[in-house]
């Protein structure tokens, strides 16, 4: 007989022994008792079914939460950050962090750790209370050291992992202090989680503000370069305008009507070009939108869309070609 067959025989023998026990038990049970036994069993079964339903609902909710957390973490890893506590600027986050730290300092004095009372050491309640206080302080120092380290090494996209690590630290403290029922209070732990969330939000907000500042400086440099180009171009056009006006006067004196008409047309073009430059100077934010690509490096479906305020947009395109 193979191993599977022997295992099946053993299962059947165990089931047979169980049935024999039930037969022996039911021999001394009358109909009324049997009915009561069946009713009690059905009640227990209904209770178990209800517990299973509740557990299934909780499991489904937990799975949804895990999926949502994983999705948020994935988005954060690719640069799409979701603020836990949206505020206007980095200064507001620093102020909120200070308030959180002040609240934690207040709680640390009396409400950060809870422990069992009434312990006796060497037949002394005073020594027992001192032992509990010392252990509580030690556990709180260990928890805070871990929390501070998590804050120092925090990155916005690792926020979920950081919170899980802090939860584990609290659970470990509770296990180590189980004998005297020492644990970090839920209120204090919640403040430290809040600190992590604010810190991650603050870091992202600082980067956003730095990026805006970089973009603003780049815009200012672009505008200054455009203004210099416009000034140089207007100066050139004004010199040509002066030159052509002098030439026009001579042509009129000579009575060369055909040349006068051509010269007047050229002066009209120069006047129009000068007016265009003056209009650009008055509306320096206006410019050209360009769409360029680099097939060799990024393929056919990747383009750069930008805005330049330069007089000749191809100058900006050539600059980008040299840089990237």
- Number of E-type strands: 4
Largest sheet: 2 strands, antiparallel
Helical content stands at: over 70%
Radius of gyration: 41 Å
Give the termini separation.
Answer: 75 Å
What amount of the residues lies in strands?
under 5%
Q: What shape does the CA trace take?
A: elongated
Summed over residues and divided by their number, the pLDDT gives a mean of 81
Helix and strand sequence: HHHEHHEHHEHEH
Query: Count of helical segments?
Result: 9
Structural class, from helix and strand content?
mainly alpha
- What ranges have pLDDT less than 50 throughout 5 or more consecutive residues? none
Strand order of the largest sheet: 1-2
Question: Could you name the key traits of this structure?
Answer:
324 residues; mainly alpha; 9 helices; 4 strands; 5% strand
List the helices and strands and how they pair.
Blueprint: H1 3-27, H2 31-77, H3 90-110, E1 113-114, H4 125-152, H5 159-176, E2 183-184, H6 186-254, H7 257-282, E3 288-293, H8 295-298, E4 303-308, H9 313-323
Helix pairs in contact: 3-6, 4-5, 5-6, 6-7
Description:
The protein has 324 residues and is mainly alpha-helical. The chain is 77% helix and 5% strand. The chain is built from nine helices and four strands, in the order αααβααβααβαβα. The strands form two sheets. It has a two-stranded antiparallel ribbon. A two-stranded antiparallel sheet has the order 3-4. α3 runs antiparallel to α6, α4 packs antiparallel against α5 and α6 runs antiparallel to α7. It is elongated. The mean pLDDT is 81.
């Amino acid at each position: 007989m193979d191993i599977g067959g022997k295992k099946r025989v053993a299962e059947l023998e165990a089931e047979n022994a169980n049935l024999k026990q039930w037969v022996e038990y039911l021999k001394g049970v009358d109909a009324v008792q049997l009915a009561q036994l069946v009713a009690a069993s059905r009640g227990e079964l209904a209770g178990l079914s209800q517990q299973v339903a509740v557990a299934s609902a909780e499991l489904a909710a937990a799975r949804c939460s895990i999926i949502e957390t994983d999705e948020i973490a994935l988005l954060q890893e690719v640069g799409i950050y979701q603020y836990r506590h949206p505020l206007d600027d980095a200064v507001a986050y620093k102020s909120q962090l200070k308030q959180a730290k002040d609240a934690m300092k207040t709680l640390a004095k009396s409400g950060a750790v809870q422990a069992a009372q009434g312990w006796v050491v060497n037949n002394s309640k005073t020594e027992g209370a001192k032992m509990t206080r010392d252990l509580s302080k030690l556990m709180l120092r260990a928890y805070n050291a871990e929390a501070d380290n998590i804050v120092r090494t925090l990155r916005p996209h690792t926020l979920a992992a950081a919170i899980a690590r802090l939860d584990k630290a609290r659970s470990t403290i509770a296990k180590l202090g189980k004998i005297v029922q020492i644990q970090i209070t839920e209120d204090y732990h919640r403040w430290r989680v809040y600190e992590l969330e604010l810190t991650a939000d603050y870091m992202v907000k600082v980067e956003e503000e730095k990026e805006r500042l970089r973009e603003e400086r780049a815009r200012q440099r672009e505008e200054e370069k455009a203004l210099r180009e416009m000034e140089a171009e207007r100066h050139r056009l004004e010199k040509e305008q002066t030159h052509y006006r002098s030439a026009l006067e001579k042509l009129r004196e000579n009575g060369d009507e055909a040349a006068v008409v051509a010269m007047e047309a050229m002066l009209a073009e120069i006047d129009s070009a000068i007016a265009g430059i003056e209009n650009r100077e008055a509306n320096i934010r206006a410019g050209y939108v360009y769409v360029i690509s680099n097939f060799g490096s990024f393929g056919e479906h990747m383009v750069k869309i930008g805005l330049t305020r330069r007089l000749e947009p191809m100058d900006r395109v050539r600059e980008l070609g040299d840089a990237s």
